[in-house]
Design brief:
The chain is α/β, with parallel strands linked by helices. The chain folds into 3 domains: about 30 residues; about 150 residues, Rossmann fold (3-Layer(aba) Sandwich), CATH 3.40.50.2300; about 140 residues, Rossmann fold. The protein contains 13 helices and 12 strands. The protein has a 7-stranded mixed sheet with strand order 7-6-8-9-10-11-12, sandwiched between helices. The protein has a 5-stranded parallel sheet with strand order 2-1-3-4-5, sandwiched between helices. Helix 3 crosses helix 4 and helix 5 crosses helix 6. The radius of gyration is 26 Å and the shape is elongated. The termini are far apart. This is ABC transporter substrate-binding protein. It holds the Pfam family ABC_sub_bind. InterPro entries: ABC_transpt-TYRBP-like, Peripla_BP_I.
Length: about 325
């Protein structure tokens, strides 16, 4: 082999080696530090933890690894409205790339704080985003918010109907709500209208804090009411332990919304799949972090609903759930 050929082969080898080395060290042609996204998380109570967990799981599925390319600033107000507003200020002050909220009170607090700022907000667990004034329409928010609705006002009558199906003998149902709550108040009105059709008297009790809920529950005597119902008011939901205690003491059913509440002792829960709604919201967040404007993204409705029955608690307090209702359960706790 001539020296010229040897030189030519050697040069090709060196060029190939250099190319491989370049791709290993700098695979995309220009060395850049990957962006780390900062996302604020604000929720009203631990009863909606599954929604936050679903959101984070959805983000991970989309390639956002906590501690690697995304950092979360998580705040939980545990049913305290003043704390919700305080946490909203703290999250917004850090100027995150995006804020995820769940429940109407948390969303309202963040909306107020971001009114003059260009921080995108993705909400979840909001019963009526248009009626609450969070967005201009389902098609376009017209502002920095978008997200997923839990549709609890729409399904409020169905929840009462199911309670009646499960316990045909009920005649009086106690419902707590806050008049200013953008979910609980309108849902209570829908429940009252449904009660008239079903022959059920709805005893609606306006409250402003947890102490008022506990006071009313402690004063109840057997026979005063036949069932307790959470209309989807986040403050009421945060008092699940007090509601469960009253349900057990009075030996009456309690209907709430999520798996966690059933695990804590609610007789029946009927509501959206919190985790799935969180994942649904993650896909919206991904679009925004990739450059989409919140106003360009329509509000989404829930994909899944769940009915959970705590048959163990029902048996312990002497309640019999109809067979037709049991058949419809997504999950049974024995």
């Amino acid at each position: 082999m001539s020296n010229r050929k040897i030189f030519f082969i050697l040069m090709i080898f060196l060029f190939a080696l250099a190319a491989v080395f370049f791709l290993i060290v700098n695979p995309f042609g220009e060395r850049k530090e990957s962006k780390i996204f900062h996302v604020g998380l604000l929720q009203m109570a631990s009863t909606v933890n599954a929604n936050i967990e679903g959101f984070k799981a959805g983000m991970e599925e989309l390639g956002y690894e906590e501690g690697i390319n995304i950092l979360y600033d998580y705040k939980n107000a545990e049913g305290d409205m003043d704390l919700t507003k305080k946490y909203a200020k703290e999250i917004v002050a850090k100027n995150p790339d995006l804020i995820f909220t769940n429940t109407s009170p948390a969303t309202q607090a963040i909306k107020d704080e971001t009114a003059s700022k260009n921080i995108p907000v993705v909400f979840s667990m909001v019963a009526d985003p248009v009626g609450a004034g969070f967005v201009a329409s389902i098609q376009s928010s017209g502002n920095n918010l978008c997200g997923t609705s839990c549709a609890y006002i729409d399904i409020a009558p169905k929840r009462l109907e199911f309670l009646k199906e499960a316990f045909p003998g009920i005649k009086k149902v106690l419902v707590f709500y806050r008049p200013e709550d953008k979910s609980g108040a309108p849902a209570t009105e829908a429940i009252k209208k449904a009660g008239q059709k079903l022959g059920i008297k709805i005893i609606d009790k306006p409250i402003s804090n947890s102490d008022e809920i506990k006071s009313v529950l402690e004063a109840l005597a057997p026979g005063d009411v036949d069932a307790l119902m959470d209309p989807a008011d986040s403050m009421v939901t945060a008092n699940v332990d007090s509601l469960v205690m009253a349900s057990r003491r009075l030996k009456i059913p309690l209907i709430m919304m999520s798996d966690l509440e059933a695990e804590k002792g609610a007789t029946i829960t009927y509501g959206v799949d919190y985790s799935d709604l969180g994942k649904q919201s993650a896909y919206i967040a991904d679009k925004i972090l990739k450059g989409a404007e919140p106003a360009e993204i329509p509000i989404e409705m829930p994909r899944k609903f769940r009915i959970v029955m705590n048959l163990k608690v029902a048996s312990e307090i002497g309640l019999e759930i109809s067979d037709d209702a049991i058949i419809r359960a997504s999950r049974k706790i024995d």
